[in-house]
Amino acid sequence: MRFDSQGALRSIAERQYVDTLIVPLAELAFGEDMVRKAESYEVIHAVTVETERQLSGRTMLSPTLSYTDVEAGVELVKDVVAKAESSGFSHVLFIASDVRFKPYDLPILFVPPLALGAMSSDQAHTMVQNFATQVITELSSRWMAT
Amino acid sequence: MAQNGSKVTRRQFLTYTLTGVGGFMAATLISPMVNFAIDPVLKKSGAGDKVKVMSLDDITTEPQRVDFKKQTQDAWYEFEETLSAWVYKTESGEIIALSPICTHLGCQVAFAGDPTRPQEFFCPCHLGRYEKDGTNIPGTPPTAPLARYEKEEKDGFLYLGSPISQK
C-alpha cells in the first residue's frame, strides 16, 4: 500500500500482514549534477512504485527520503529504521543508487542510475521490471528467512 | 361550459396545456443539473473499453504474464493504469485471462511462483495459493478465486476489459 490515508488505515488494521516498509532514497542536487540526480530518482521511483504494485498486500511504500549530504543521509536512514521497527515493521528496505552508502551497514538495495528517458518506453519498462524483480526476490528471501 | 361532443372544458384544456408546458420547461432546467451531478457515475459505466493485449497465436496452455496500460477514470481524475493478466488456453481451447491480484490483500501472484508447485499460482506475500484455473486453495490466506478479465477475440488478437470477481 501507499502512504496515503487509505493505505495508512489498512496498514494499521492489517499490521500482522503489512510488515515491510520500502523507502526510496534519493539525492537532491541543484547545480550541474541535477540532471544526473533526477535520472537516478526516476529509476528509484519507477522501481519502488512497481515493487509496491506487485507486493501491495505486505509492503508499504514510504514517501521518498532525500538528502544533500551522505552523512546526514545515513543518520536519516538509521532513524527511519529504528522508528519503523519499533512500530512493528519487521523489514525495512531502502532503494538507492548512491554507492557512497555502501561502506555503511544499512539495509539498502542499489539500482544502477540509468537514464530511462533516453530509452524507448518498451526498453524502460523491461528495465524497471527487471530491477523490481530483483527487489521482490530480495524481499521474498528475507520473508522466507523469518 | 362543455360543448356538445367534447368532455373537456376550456378551463381544463388550459390547465392541461399549462401543466404540460410547465413540466417540459422544468425538465429542461433540471435534467442538465441532474446530469451534471451524477456525471462521474455515468462516465465510469462507460469506461468498459477493452484493450488489445496480445496475438491469439502466442497463447499456449502454459499461463503467460502480459502487462498492458489502460486509461482509467476515478471520478474526475483520469490516469493511465498498468495492469497485468495471466493468459492461457485450456485443453478445449477456451482462453482464460486471470487477474494476478491476490484476493487476500492485493499482492500479485505468479504462476509457478513457488518452484516446488509448478502448476499453481503463488502469492509471495503471505504464501497464498491458487489452482491453475484461479480457484483458491483452502488452508491458504485467500478466501476467493482470482478475478477473470472480460475478454474478446477479434482479428487474431485478444482484447481485455475489466476484471470480474469470481466470488
Automatic annotation (TrEMBL), chain B:
Record domain Rieske: where: 87-160
Keyword set, alphabetical order: 2Fe-2S, Disulfide bond, Iron, Iron-sulfur, Membrane, Metal-binding, Transmembrane, Transmembrane helix
Residues passing through the membrane, by range: 12-34
CDD domains linked: Rieske
InterPro entries xref list: Rieske_2Fe-2S, Rieske_2Fe-2S_sf, Rieske_Fe-S_prot, TAT_signal
Key word rRNA-binding present: no
Gene3D superfamilies: Rieske [2Fe-2S] iron-sulphur domain
PANTHER family associated with the record: CYTOCHROME B-C1 COMPLEX SUBUNIT RIESKE, MITOCHONDRIAL
Protein name: Ubiquinol-cytochrome c reductase iron-sulfur subunit
Organism for this UniProt entry: Exiguobacterium aestuarii
